Amino acid sequence: MWMKNEKISLRQYKRLLFFDMVGLGLVLLPDLIAQNAANAGGMVIFLGALLASLYASALLQRMQGGVRPNSFWYLPYGIYLLMVGAYGLFLLTDLVHTFLLPEESVWILSVMILLLLLYSRRAGLEGRGRTFEVLFVPMLVLLLILLLLGASSLRGMNLFPLQLRKYGFSFMGWYPAFLVFSACQFAFFMGKGLEEGVDKESLWKGTCEIIFLSAFILFLTYEMLLGSFGSQALGAAKIPIMIFTSNIVIPGGFLRRQEALVAGICFVGLIAFCGSGLHYGIYCLKQGVTKEMQNVMQAHKCVDVFASLGMLFLGLAQYYYGSRTKGLGVWLLWISPVALCLPFLLMEGKYKKGKNKWKVAAMCFFFCILGCGCSAQELENKSFPMVMTLGAEDGECVLTYKYMDLSRVSEKEKTKQGSDELTVRASSVVGAIRKMDEKNGKIMDLNHVKVLLLEESFLEDEMLMMQLVEKGNGGVELPGNMLVFVTNNVDAISRLQGMMDEDLGNYLAELLEENPNYNDTSDATFKSMICDWYNGGGNTILPSLGVQDDLPVVDGYYLMQTDASGKNQVLEKVNVEEGHVAGMCSGAVGRIDMDVDGGQIHLENVKASYEYTALRDGVECYVTIRGDIMQKESAPMEAEKLKEEAAAYFSGMIQNAYEKRGMDLTNSYGHLRCHDLDLYEKYENQVMNYRKDLCLHTAYRFRVVE
Fold it and tell me: Are residues 342 and 390 located together in one domain of the fold?
């Protein structure tokens, strides 16, 4: 029998359940809940945990009265558990293949993972308990640190409102959360394996404690992802926790693939979940046959072989013919309510003690660490693009990589390094990227790309833009932290590389990152553009490049705004001053120097507040702008005069853009959902109608500081 182990402690029991729940929840829940519960998803998670705790209470209570020895009902329960394990195997294989080892065969990855599960199975319950007891604290601390480091990308307006009136606690919101926490059903198998002295009350408290601890971790993760992505972008992302961590900047810059760290956490959790499905599934199948047949099958290990092969083929079938929400996922969705009732008809199987081999299970962690690294390739066989350019010509996508070839870099060359350029054309963005991979003779490592340079023609092509954001939101192949620039002539900017003493990508990045006016450059990143596209409403402010003295300079900004549907794109170019005003209203620009009649004055710490009033034929918005004025020596003016000049500067920019061109530099449309839900629902997919119906007023509350 599979249980050839000693007892486990209550602490080991709780940590086993923790990994069973959290690993699955991190990979599966965020985007699924975002699709169905949006901003109310945090509440949905706790509702699922509450229902799971009630289920666990009933299950543990029933276990105290004893159960029947052998029963036919073990067979369907065993099949169900193997299906659960197969679904976990699919998620695990998809995770490793998509984000860690994309060049490896899916078959090989699945077989290797299954062999690892079978090998670790020899450790028994105590071995698994000891392993996950050791991994609990470092994995939890690592996850919290990664979430903390990613907090800088949060946008407060993505978290509100809760929108309960629109989404409520929908079935497809709370039910998946409940199914994740229903991993507490494994207490049915582990309960009798607890060491002596663990009473009924302690077991119940420990189970509920770990359910709500898991719920808190998943809640915190969800809110961080929601604040970073927004509900629409989060719902469209594939394993958003991976994309989120890939955009984190680790202090010191010593790690470029930080998503590998969270991949390790997910890997360990899914290994625990898959292992539980396999172990307990085999156990139930053996208990469900007759005693005579049971002995024959155990002697030939038929159950182990057929159960393992069945789980493997189900997982592969799900990978090739299903998805996370189709195929096996649908089956589990509908049969789980019945399957969760089966433990009440069954009993705990007896087990024999055996030699502890807990160290074997530690290979899960070791395998995780190995899988988190890059594939073993020599540096001279890799190329590292620094700039990625996209243009549109005759309806086709033109993709160019400007990359650093390490085979041409000498230790003595510290400034001007060998730079190469490779260009392809295709009918789509995905096709261009695929053709680039086929054409290039080296392995492309895009983790070092600093700048995405978009040609104006590409930005105006909604179809190509949609393909780009879908590709970017589908994985970590395209880094979300690369800065986005726009130009009307990509070739003119690219030709400047030959006249520069440093790499073009580094130079363009420094234009923003080292600009003292910028409070935060995250609004100009690829990830920010993706989130604004999916969520709608927000002004995406993209710097425009021109040429001056044979160097690229920011000569203006593009303001891009879409509906929540990702359609009805509004694209407008503004000058540098208007771009700075729009950036200050959004929080991206932290300070500016204004040229006024009396000289120059300095403004910083700008905050904008919004009030909305529904009119019969439109909407009225009052925007109050506050900030601190610092007097320059060149402008010796009285305090009231300084305030008047600053107000006139802002008012002139905002009102001129609004009255003459219909542009809203304050981005009142993007803030509407946080202030008036009725008006937001009225104009949710009608950004142009909102602009026509808008009556914009501004007020200014500046103060002069030393």
Answer: no
